[in-house]
Amino acid sequence: MKKSENCTGVSTVTLQRPPVNSLNLELLQEFTATLDELGKSKSCGMILTSASPTVFSAGLDILEMYRPKSDRIRLFWSKLQEMWLKLYGSAYPTVAAINGHSPAGGCLLALSCDYRVMVGPKYTIGLNETQLGIIAPRFQDTMLNTIPRRQAEFALTTGRMFSTEEALNVGLIDEVATDKADAITKAESFLNKFAKIPASARHQTKLQFRKEALDNLKNNIDSDLQIFVGFLETPRIQKSLELYLESLKKKI
Amino acid sequence: MKKSENCTGVSTVTLQRPPVNSLNLELLQEFTATLDELGKSKSCGMILTSASPTVFSAGLDILEMYRPKSDRIRLFWSKLQEMWLKLYGSAYPTVAAINGHSPAGGCLLALSCDYRVMVGPKYTIGLNETQLGIIAPRFQDTMLNTIPRRQAEFALTTGRMFSTEEALNVGLIDEVATDKADAITKAESFLNKFAKIPASARHQTKLQFRKEALDNLKNNIDSDLQIFVGFLETPRIQKSLELYLESLKKKI
Amino acid sequence: MKKSENCTGVSTVTLQRPPVNSLNLELLQEFTATLDELGKSKSCGMILTSASPTVFSAGLDILEMYRPKSDRIRLFWSKLQEMWLKLYGSAYPTVAAINGHSPAGGCLLALSCDYRVMVGPKYTIGLNETQLGIIAPRFQDTMLNTIPRRQAEFALTTGRMFSTEEALNVGLIDEVATDKADAITKAESFLNKFAKIPASARHQTKLQFRKEALDNLKNNIDSDLQIFVGFLETPRIQKSLELYLESLKKKI
């Protein structure tokens, strides 16, 4: 992950874990530390993008969840919870410059920012976890807070992946860009809207929309962890992950 | 009501109480028993449709509510509550193939399924109870969970009936069909989306969207019953139902 | 403020505090008294409009909030709370005939009615308080209950002002009118929808959509007052109001 600050104080954070920016424990730790730094440095805003030419993030690393070790899986899920609380409730504005496919946890990262610009037309985005039989407690709230409720129910029960155009029409993304540079430019343009707006009023207003979802996780952070770890231990889920990993190998 | 299962395990349930599938106690009992059967048989999904060529369901039978007998009206409303809890929270996916007009309780049946295909363009659908001065506690939540909040407030306060086209535009229905056969085909196509999705993840995800409305009824099931029965006993409501019944007779 | 009743029992209430209908304590007191009268007289409905040719209402009078006196600011905010509870929960239907610009508290008045007709295309409407660093507790709920949640978050964090066309597209207003007379005609047409609908069922249905926001204020009415008064006393906010007042003087 590399971080650069341009003259306007905007921080660009680039996910850089080849080949597809799968979120493992180490990447979550590094990203959470970066979010902390941005909070302390009173950043003007973060643009989150990817070093991969075709994938924003493939989501949670399946290898963390397949035959997990008890200590590490608990640490992994706790760090995911912590990262999400910091990203979704951040005091600085955030934009996802989505320059590639963005399934599952990749979509969660994008939905947890304040604004989404996506390179089109060929990439797809969505919370498709049900296709693997997985339900991530709480995190579905980000979809419900972004697109109409009926569309969210349909998308999440069917594990729908949206084309860029479909995502724009339903409000899952805010703008389409022609390439990564265009996405960054549009992201900066969004952040510039806040140039004259008092930061405290902006942040308090943002929290009025996100406080309920944030509190729901905070108030259930331990039980959510227990539930997810217990859920992963079921033979059915492990079999599902095994089949999925095998299907990935065949693609190579 | 007849039930058939095709080779894919999908169950088609056909409302068949001439002339307009008014929901009386017996029909609610029979339909609830069918829902129970489908739950036990682990159905791949239910398609709900009507044997009438012009009406999906005219809604609650006014004769159950006009000059009601104390025992029967309590049984009637309890059964409606039970039916709705089972339909709205069903473990198997459900589609309404709406092959005719669908006012009031007919619309409630459709809204309580997971997907709606409606034969167009000449039929109408809506929760128009306010026009009779009636408010059905809780059940309005199904409209709020389907179309945008502002549209739901407008529709429910004015007792709006939507044309098929209007219903599609606002998201009250998901697809328009040319006739009943086309509606069934499109319903099957929706159910096929779940062919490879683990049933448990699909159902848990559905409940994340519906649990609050379901719990609201469960936690108030007795008081809702008391309120509705007391409400029906007011002279004003009985007079309104009487005038409505007289207007129906004049149409014949 | 003048009030007239036409033959159908509809009351037209005209805001008339030159030059821009800023809401000061006296105007809020007079308007609240009018709302009480309408409630007692069982009005068929209220049309709220402005005597100004270019402004519906400029919102809260900044002079009430700049260097406020302790007694008066508390009275001012209490009256605003009382006015809003009466308007948003009114037993009679209400329409805003928005015949001019409608920022901040002017937009709040419009959002608290049941229906909005706006003269286009040159006027603008929005809750732009964050631009002054101000957050009005609770009242943002009216935006959230009117337009999609994602659009509301974007609009309120950026302090967005909508053109008439943008407001129509997002559902912030219901209809566009060519001039004030046309707006009044369209407002009457909306009120006529309720001619045959029992008033009690209409009002109870409206409250099902608004009860939560109303209760949130009722249950926090004193603490909200304390928070807002304390917030106004901070040097940062007073400085922001001072700069704003100076910028207004330069425009003259």
TrEMBL record, chains A, B, C:
What are the recorded Gene Ontology BP terms? fatty acid beta-oxidation
Spell out the InterPro entries in the cross-references: ClpP/crotonase-like_dom_sf, Enoyl-CoA_hyd/isom_CS, Enoyl-CoA_hydra/iso
Q: What does this protein do?
A: Key enzyme of fatty acid beta-oxidation. Able to isomerize both 3-cis (3Z) and 3-trans (3E) double bonds into the 2-trans (2E) form in a range of enoyl-CoA species, with a preference for (3Z)-enoyl-CoAs over (3E)-enoyl-CoAs. The catalytic efficiency of this enzyme is not affected by the fatty acyl chain length.
The protein's matches in Gene3D superfamilies, at most eight in alphabetical order, are given as: 2-enoyl-CoA Hydratase, Chain A, domain 1 (3.90.226.10), 6.10.250.170
- Taxonomic lineage from the root: Eukaryota, Metazoa, Ecdysozoa, Arthropoda, Hexapoda
Which reaction does this chain catalyze?
(3Z)-dodecenoyl-CoA = (2E)-dodecenoyl-CoA; (3Z)-decenoyl-CoA = (2E)-decenoyl-CoA; (2E)-tetradecenoyl-CoA = (3Z)-tetradecenoyl-CoA; (3Z)-octenoyl-CoA = (2E)-octenoyl-CoA
The record's section on Pfam families has: ECH_1
Where is this protein found? Answer: Mitochondrion matrix
Q: What is this protein called?
A: Enoyl-CoA delta isomerase 1, mitochondrial
Q: Which UniProt keywords apply?
A: Acetylation, Fatty acid metabolism, Isomerase, Lipid metabolism, Mitochondrion, Transit peptide
Task: Describe which pathway this protein belongs to, using the record's wording.
Answer: Lipid metabolism; fatty acid beta-oxidation
Can you name the source organism? Timema tahoe
